[in-house]
């Protein structure tokens, strides 16, 4: 296939690019606006691979998206372009509305117009895969069953609401126009090349530098964690094998409290890079909780595992050790980001999205 992949220079999108080029014969048309969280370096060997082309464009730009479809004639779309950081959405929701809702609408219309002109065989094989989040389902209590494909939507933050709106648009284009769509919802991703404001890289880098590790509330909020390379593999399986109109909940069965994630990172760093000042747990500081902080997310991936013949291969312990090691080996990448974008500032709070 030739896959039009939006947001391919982002954290998850770049992992999908790397997986496609290493494990399949598909071609990639990578459309990315190159916002603050994008990194061309994260593409690694993709930048020199003739099966990958990078187009700097905004999915909210109708003429640009129409031109991409006309010139490159993709067999499938994987829409990963999104604003994703919950704290940023609380401080300023406008970019989330523009990219996540308006951008999805523009991309859907460009895809629908293109799809409608295809021959019958190509039209039947075309897929529009929209990648979403478990946050659209709201929060779980301690005793509640994990989210699955039938869970009702209950978004509780500007970010979650924007993603829920985009999910509804995608499904409406399927039911109204027949566009062959696929939707996937996933848990918190972590791994190489994640922007330093997110929980795991933030804690890793602050702890490495002896800075405070501010944790919202008492750290008891629970999140389900999936190593990004496992997620990338699942996403490609969906676009290859997914049934039009279907939803797939992708998870790794690895729920952890935020405080346990922070402590695990501290323990790994204490082992790999001992701090003469003492164990890094001393740096943890509990701070006032953020507005609307959901208590628990967790996904039941059983249906997707069966349908896709896929299962996440990384335990949290294995994945977090690989991730911390990666940040230790790639200082130049994250140090440049910190120096350019956060000079003299404390970078964020330890708050899983």
Number of domains: 2
CATH homologous superfamily grouping of the largest domain: NAD(P)-binding Rossmann-like Domain
Figure out the total of helices. 12
Distance between the termini: 33 Å
* H/E series: EHEEHEHHHEHEEHEEHEEHEHHH
Biggest sheet layout: 7 strands, parallel
Low-confidence stretches: 343-348
User: For this entry, what is the oligomeric state of its chains?
Assistant: single chain
Short description:
The protein folds into 2 domains: 2-191 and 226-250, NAD(P)-binding Rossmann-like Domain (Rossmann fold, 3-Layer(aba) Sandwich), CATH 3.40.50.720; 199-222 and 255-295 and 314-341, UDP-galactose 4-epimerase, domain 1 (Alpha-Beta Complex). Helix content is 42%, strand content 16%.
Write the topology of this structure.
Elements: E1 2-6, H1 11-23, E2 27-32, E3 52-56, H2 62-72, E4 76-79, H3 86-91, H4 94-116, H5 120-125, E5 127-133, H6 158-177, E6 181-186, E7 188-190, H7 199-208, E8 213-216, E9 222-227, H8 228-241, E10 247-250, E11 255-257, H9 258-272, E12 284-287, H10 302-308, H11 316-329, H12 331-341
Parallel strand pairs: 1-2, 1-4, 2-3, 4-5, 5-6, 6-10, 7-9, 8-12
Antiparallel strand pairs: 9-11
Helix pairs in contact: 1-8, 2-4, 4-6, 7-9, 7-11, 9-11
Q: What would you note in describing this structure?
A:
With 353 residues, the protein is of the alpha/beta class. The protein folds into two domains: 215 residues, Rossmann fold (3-Layer(aba) Sandwich), CATH 3.40.50; 93 residues, UDP-galactose 4-epimerase, domain 1. 42% of the residues lie in helices and 16% in strands. It contains twelve helices and twelve strands. Helix 7 packs across helix 11. The longest helix has 23 residues.
């Amino acid at each position: 296939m030739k896959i039009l992949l939006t947001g391919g220079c982002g954290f998850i999108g770049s992992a999908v690019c790397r997986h496609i080029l290493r494990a399949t014969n598909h071609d990639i048309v990578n459309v990315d606006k190159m916002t603050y969280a994008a990194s061309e370096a994260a593409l690694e060997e993709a930048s020199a691979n003739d099966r990958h082309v990078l187009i700097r464009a905004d999915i909210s730009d109708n003429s640009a998206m129409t031109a991409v479809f006309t010139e490159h004639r993709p067999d499938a779309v994987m829409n990963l372009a999104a604003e994703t950081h919950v704290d940023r959405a609380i401080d300023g929701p406008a970019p989330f509305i523009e990219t996540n809702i308006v951008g999805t609408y523009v991309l859907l219309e460009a895809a629908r117009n293109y799809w409608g002109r295809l021959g019958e065989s190509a039209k039947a094989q075309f897929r529009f895969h929209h990648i979403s989040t478990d946050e659209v389902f709201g929060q779980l209590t301690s005793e509640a069953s994990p989210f699955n494909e039938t869970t009702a939507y209950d978004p509780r933050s500007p970010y979650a609401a924007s993603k829920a709106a985009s999910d509804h648009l995608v499904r409406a284009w399927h039911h109204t126009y027949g566009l062959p769509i696929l939707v996937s919802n996933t848990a918190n991703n972590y791994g190489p090349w994640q922007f330093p404001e997110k929980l795991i890289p933030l804690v890793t880098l602050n702890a490495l530098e002896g800075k405070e590790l501010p944790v919202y509330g008492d750290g008891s909020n629970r999140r389900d964690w999936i190593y990004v390379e496992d997620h990338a593999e699942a996403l490609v399986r969906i676009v290859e094998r997914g049934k039009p109109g279907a939803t797939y909940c992708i998870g790794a069965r690895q729920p952890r409290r935020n405080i346990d994630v922070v402590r695990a990172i501290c323990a790994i760093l204490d082992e790999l890079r001992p701090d003469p000042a003492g164990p890094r747990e001393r740096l943890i500081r509990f701070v006032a909780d953020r507005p609307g902080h959901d208590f628990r997310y967790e996904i039941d991936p059983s249906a997707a595992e069966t349908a896709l013949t896929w299962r996440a291969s990384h335990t949290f312990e294995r994945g977090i050790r690989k991730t911390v090691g990666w940040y230790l080996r790639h200082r130049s990448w994250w140090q440049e980001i910190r120096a350019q974008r956060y000079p003299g500032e404390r970078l964020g709070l330890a708050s899983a999205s």
